[in-house]
Amino acid sequence: MPDNGKSALDRMLVKISHLDTLLSLVGEVIITSNNLTTTNRRIQDFYDRQQPLDKISLDMIKGAEVTSNRISSDLHSLVMDIRMVEIKSTFQRFRRAVRDMAKDAGKQVELITIGEDTMVDKTVAEKLYDPINHQVRNAIDHGIEEPLERKRAGKQAMGKLILRAFQRENNVFIEITEDGRGIDGDAIAKAALERGIIDERHFNELGDDEKLGLIYHPGFSTKTTASKISGRGVGMDVVKSNIEELGGEVTIETTKGGGTTFSYRIPQVTAVNILDCLTVRAGDNYYAIPILNVVSTLGMNESEVTSTLDKGKVIQYLDYLVPLYDLNELLGEKPLEKEEEITVVIIESKTGRTAFRVSELLTPEKLVFTPLSDLFYVQGISGTTMISGSKMGLVLDIVEIINRSMGIAYKDESHFDDGEIMRSDAPGDGAWASENKAEGEGAGAVAGDESKVTLSSDIGKEISHRDEFLMELDEMIKSADEQILSLEQNPDDNELINKLFRDFHSMKGNLMMVGFSELGSFVHEVEAILDQARSGDLALTTEIIDILLDSSDMIKKAQQAIVANKAPAIDKGLISSISKFKKPVAKKEIELVDVHQKTFHLTSLEKFNLLARRYAQDHIYQAYLDFKPEYQQTYLVALLILKRITRIGHVFCTVPGMEEIEAQSIGNQIKIMFSTNLGSDDVKKFMEQVLVRHYDVTDYELLQTD
Predict the structure, then answer these.
(1) What is the CATH T-level fold of the domain 441-581, as seen in this structure?
(2) CATH number of the domain at 273-405, please?
(3) What's the per-residue H, E or C state across 151-217?
(4) Where are the alpha helices (H) located in 514-590, listed in sequence order?
(5) Per-residue DSSP letters for 290-329?
(6) Predicted local confidence at residue 230, as pLDDT
(7) How far is it, in rounded angstroms, from Cα 16 to Cα 227?
(8) Rounded Cα–Cα distance for residues 626 and 666 (Å)
């Protein structure tokens, strides 16, 4: 089924060292393939002569087997390494959300992240967002107390919310800790009793852990009214379900008045579709059982199987009674024929231990499996695979097959509480993809909204590398958000201010480069107030921080509109808020020069580069451009023109010079000396189709000087 929350660009960065290793392995695959071809010819020759294989041929076959096994293992390990990403990107998505939720709840909450460099599979990192988001909301809304209540309890007014990640053996652990009021197990049990979830007898027999476990019951909550942040706090059953889908488990530690920690344990291998399995045959069917879940295999006499009233057929294993089922019959197939000697496989998961009768144990194998789509879902089966390279087999879902044996039906719980829980609109990796319907509608509805300025629909025509542009813009937005939130805690940190200024400056340049001049001009306004902060003329108050965060949000929404091929929009109220703090800039007196009369002045290095380009048989051109910008400042257009020309060649010198352009001492003309391998006709076409059409160039002259 398609994932509606999935980003439009499902990409990730790959280290060069990983690509080098991959290239090396590809080379080994080619060599092994050639060796197999040689071996095949040799075997065919012996077959044609009707002679037995000699030792050399047998050694060649054995060598090919050993080499192919090693290469497949190395490729598997490499793919797993490539898929690994730092959990930092997932944790950082909550910085803004925690700030806003705490503000809405009237609470003071500090988010602390530990272990951001912990590596997890990319798919796991993406799937962790929803359960963590739910628990963060519950922690702020129901766990952490209001400042006055905390002070009365002898705590600091500022509550702490800690996200911690670490690895232990082959597992990743995620902990969500808050120092709030803790979970009252007795209150949970009482609420469960009142709602009919448990009866009086069970109520009196419950231990502390069992009381806490009741919060995983679907729809359970101790709250009677819904809040804006987390509804009634229900949905822990879905948190548990999401983590179990990753092969993990959730545990709780809580102290009344001291806070609560939810811990996720997730196996590292769950996101890779290659498994070490024990393969078995049951009648005419073949099954693969993940080797990590196999406890033991036994051969026994039918007389050793006993029957009980409550468990049906059982066998004894290490002084324990284990339920026994016919694997075929359990999955709705024809039962196995009765035999005196039977073969049994004992499996286990956190939900229990079960034994299955099978016909035959086959060789353990490393298998590649294909997950079943929802359309072909069968409880207890997770996917299909090829066994021994030729037989179609089914891969057992251990948790679900044990649940099936216990009579627990599969429940499709893919959503949180009936809309009561407000999902965060914080975008994640690939943030340009709309994560909820409201945002997608908003991007397309701005045209008729008087509070919005709808930008030109004639946008983005120059995005020849659209995906790369969106990825770069997304990284800049993420970086800007991080700097803004850090500045809220340290408003006088000049290094942070400079980093944030550079982020917005880069955004502006990228947007204008691809034709989003109006949006780039808005970013320039934000950049201007940051420039005032850099010079000490403007203090970064809470109001300024809010404006910066709102500006970042607006750019995100514009980004989503771009992906949807819709015109982005700017909030008029936000423009007005920025204008209140923007210091009027005195217009510079620009000394206009006749660029026709002023000659180029090349440095020694530029002259050397010019000779090198001539030696490479590039053409040398001098271009005079007349341009009249409609939306952005003249010097910005000049810089964008120069940057665009560098995509077809090399710029040696300009009139006015670069220092004058950056100092905004430029009129509406510029003269450029550049080299390119394009002929004069192609350069003229570039002038007409690119610079005239998209960069406000009104007239030009071109002279080829080589």
Answers:
(1) Four Helix Bundle (Hemerythrin (Met), subunit A) (1.20.120)
(2) 2.40.50.180
(3) HHCCCCCCEEEEEEEEEECCEEEEEEEECCCCCCHHHHHHHHHHCCCCCHHHHHHCCHHHHHHHHHC
(4) 517-534, 542-563, 572-581
(5) EGGGEEEEEEEEGGG-EEETTTEEEEEETTEEEEEEEHHH
(6) 52
(7) 48
(8) 12
Q: Are 209 and 233 in contact (CB under 8 A)?
A: no
Gap between the Cα atoms of 170 and 119, Å rounded: 12
CB 638 within 8 A of CB 672: no
CA distance 352 to 489: 49
CA distance 280 to 358: 7
pLDDT digits over 484-496, tens only?
Answer: 988 888 888 988 9
Q: Give 505: exposed, middle or buried? Use CB within 10 Å, 0-12, 13-18, 19+.
A: middle
Query: 448: which DSSP letter?
Result: G
Type of residue at 627 = F
The pLDDT assigned to 590 comes to: 54
Q: Residue 576, SS3?
A: helix
Q: In whole angstroms, what is the distance from residue 444 CA to residue 431 CA?
A: 17
Q: What is the mean pLDDT of residues 676-704?
A: 90
For domain 604-704, the question of CATH label 3.30.70.1110 is answered with yes
Helix 466-489, helix 494-513: angle, nearest 10: 160
CA dist 592 → 599, 633, 669 (Å): 15, 16, 9
146-158 pLDDT, tens per residue? Answer: 999 999 999 999 9
Beta strands per DSSP E along 372-530 = 381-387, 391-396, 452-454
CATH number for the segment(s) 87-184+222-269: 3.30.565.10
What are 216's strand-pairing partners? Answer: none
How far is residue 158's CA from residue 178's CA, in Å, rounded to a whole number?
A: 11
- Six-digit token string for 634: 């003249």
